[in-house]
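Protocol step 4 of 6: structure prediction from sequence.
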Amino acid sequence: MDAKAKFDAGKSIFPALVVFLLFAVLAGAWGWALLDRYEQQVKAEVTSDLIGTGKPRTNQLSAFLRERKGNARIVSGLLSGGLAQAWWQGGDKDLPATLRRTLDSILAEYGYAGAMILDDGGNIRFGVGRSVGLSAEGRSMALRALGKASPVFSDLYYADPAAPRKLMLDTFAPVMSAGGAKTEGVLVLRGDWDYMFSTFQPWPDQSRSGESLLARQDGAEVLFLNQLRHQEQAADRLRVPLTGDASSPGVLPAIRAVQGHYGATETVDYRGERVLAYSLPVPDSDWSMVVKKDVAEALEGVRRIETATILSFLVLAALAFALWWWWLRSRGRAEQALRESRERFETVFRASPDSITLVTLDKGLFVEVNSSFERFTGYSPAEALGRTALDLKLWMDPAQREFVFAELQAGRAVNGLEARIRRKDGEMRVGLRFATKVEIGGVPHVLSIMRDITEAKRAEELIQGLNAELEQRVRQRTAQLERSNKELETFSYSVAHDLKAPLRGIDGYSRLLLADYSAKLDEQGRQFLRNVRQAAQQMGQLINDLLAYSRLERRDMQADKVDPQLLIGSLLAELDYEIQTRGVAVSVDVSSTNVTADRDGLMMALRNLIENALKFTRGASKPTIEISGHDTGTTRILSIRDNGVGFDMKFHDQIFGIFERLHRGEDYPGTGVGLAIVKKAMERMGGRAWAESEPGKGATFYLEIPK
């Protein structure tokens, strides 16, 4: 670049810098505003999640406290009415055993750690459970409960001698005299507070900082009542001074809560970390619940976006400036770049393995040809230039040439046209032609690329002859397979016949023994023979079911229009005697809409499911079977629902396997083949079968059939 060009470039770069800097400032301000708005939106979403976590937990804790009061009220009522008074005065020597049984059952029923009965002086007169004993503080709390009309709670404390590291919560309830005139003593129910709080202490998601805490005011301090996530041994020990204006920023959320300032806030917690918090009171107590999450964690995604945005902006800005500067410097080199581009194009043109030609559109004269043209046609560039393909007699089908030029003159490109070409030596070659119209110096030309596919075509005629031979082999193999299937079917029936013949003999001779020699056998012998007959009949039924399954596997499926309502009606008519005898309530709500299915296969599937529903409702007091159907648009779903014994869904896939049973044969006879037949029949017609159930709540089986 000469001095004048450098000076001109320097003059033009200053306005560009001004525009660039202005754009950078505006884009940065706009991006900062968007990120700030997004940050506020994220904080609002996190606060909403905190509210959704805090309210249910507070309700759960309130319900727990009401339950404890209710338990204490019930037990103290049992002890009132003179029961405890008579024992204290020595009027009933057997009463302690009675009290022990009562309190043992209460502890076992409600899961308390211990229970005590105190007299009106705060002395333990009776105790039961794994946690019995009172500290001086505990006795003081008990005496304060003497004057209360309803149960009250103690403070949370570690004073349990049996579990000195466990945080406990005592419930005190007054024990009244027979007429309710005075308080005779106090009932103490001791609960494990750590167990209760552990049920809602874990955070509902994978947050690293999410935490629930419980606090109350204790004089001039805030006392934390539960174990904290970020500080060990904090329950009933961690205290912070109750100082500062609750409405000012930087005040702990626990301090705001115990002063009655509930709701959402952004402040610092007991660690000094910035947090988003939501606080609310716990009903029936002087406690406050606080749920919180670190701002740093909540805004991790925003910070990553901010970093990525800043880096991207800086990269784009630097790139844009570099491109601008490069454009300024490259204007003087445009002609050199154009020459280099032409050279590169010519290199590609000459070296391409495909035949590339450039001809005039009006007369078809060759203007440029590459070296591959000579390899493909046998004509050198000197022989081709200035002549047409017709002159060289290249086209074996001149009509194809006319088609190509007509398409190009109409403004359409030609792609993938197979053309037969006659080489200079007379050999025929096949080329795949791509041609398009281009303007060069205002004159329309045709740029044509021809790829030699001669060998590929020969190979295709050959990956076709082999295919015909393969198809013949497939037909022969299919015929052999059909013969094998027929032989297998004959073998199956022969085996079944040979198996059933001795079974019939076993059953017949057993029946004769029972009929003719019953008097000579004791009851055990007769029962043995009945068991033999039952086993033989079961084996015969199993053979029949296996034959049915085998026939279903081999038979040709006959797809036809089938009305499911008619099939269900005919099956219920066959089973009408058992339905009426057992008083089974059967309802059918299946519209008469045809489906495309194998009639026999669908009949077998429905028969097995309805018979199963009848079998497994034998223990129901009011057996019920509901058969319904609905359309999904492309399929029709039939369902058979019963109120029988049901099954556990973890065995769902198992019940559709052959010989798979979930119930004893003595309770529900069967071979374990029926549901396998259902599954196979539905799969063969392009449908499917599945079930839904719960133990003791019946089962629903579904059949999905293409329309």
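Step 5 (inspection) to follow. Confidence is low (pLDDT under 50) at residues 1-5.
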